[in-house]
Amino acid sequence: MSQTSRLVSLDALRGFTIAAMIVVNFPGSEAAVFPTLSHSRWNGLTFTDLVAPFFLFFVGMSIALAFSHKRGQPGLYRKILIRSLRIYAVGMLLNLLPDFDFSDVRWTGTLHRIAIVFGVCASLYLSSNWKVQASVAGFLVVEYWLVMTLIPTPGYGKVMLEPGQNLAAWVDSLYLPGKMWQGTWDPEGILSTFPSIATGITGMLAGQWMLTQRPPEEKTIFLMIAGLVSASAGYFWGLIFPVNENLWTSSFVLVTSGFASLLFGTFYYIVDIRGDAAWTCPGIIFGSNAIVAYVLADVFALVFYRSIGGGEPLNEAVVGSLTAAGMGAKGASLLYALLFVGVNFIPVWWLYRKRIFIRL
To answer: Which part of the chain is the Heparan-alpha-glucosaminide N-acetyltransferase catalytic domain (predicted)?
Structure first.
């Protein structure tokens, strides 16, 4: 693969991941959701738990592909910092909607974590080789494991890994400003951000592998083997440090990065090697303005998930009508979420047709 070639599979996967993120973030009814379309209550892994780490993995891959020929160019670190701050600022804007109550604002979230991971990973990529990057990722997951499992949670006198009763929650209670997603703890808090950076690094390593001159089939085989090894290692690590998205545990990093590598390897083989790419068009369109699609979903939700004229919220009214017509509540909730994805598809499709690609 030349440094100027685009991976259609990566573009499509980035878009499909954003679409999946919208589906799981905006069900038609919070009370009627298929189990795998909800986050795990604590330990475990559902389809929804895969969405965020997959996107960070693909962010890491994109960093390697985008910056591979830019090392040494002046002003890159400044551009990385500015882009990270822009993404973070947009995340804050979404957290302030619709009331703009600065006294009760959350300072963390999905875009906030993407901003941090992008900034750290891109800077690391420009200043080091893959061996150093792999060492940093290994250090982050091992140290996080040791910190979380060896240091007793203050106030309890023992190691705790329960919701709101663990070292990460304790650190957030002291140092994280604003309100927290779960009241007394936040799944995107301070300590758990460190292993999420490792997720981005695993994507960078995969991206650098794709830049080598090895045959495409060899690249695919390596991705599949690496994915199986990583996911298996994460599973066994999870026996002593449970797979947990809320804590972004080290085992969670390995399992999800392994699955992401397997998924990308499959897409790469089908789309880029075999050339069967026509069906990926929706993903490519979403992926061409991925952050825009994510932001639009939050903005459009102010209409599609709120009451009109003081009556029943639109989503509940539609789901209620579908269930009254005989559809199952969970199926109706999913259908509404998919229709909402379609609504968000329209403006990004228009941007794609006009060749407008908004980069924060």
So the answer is: 6-151
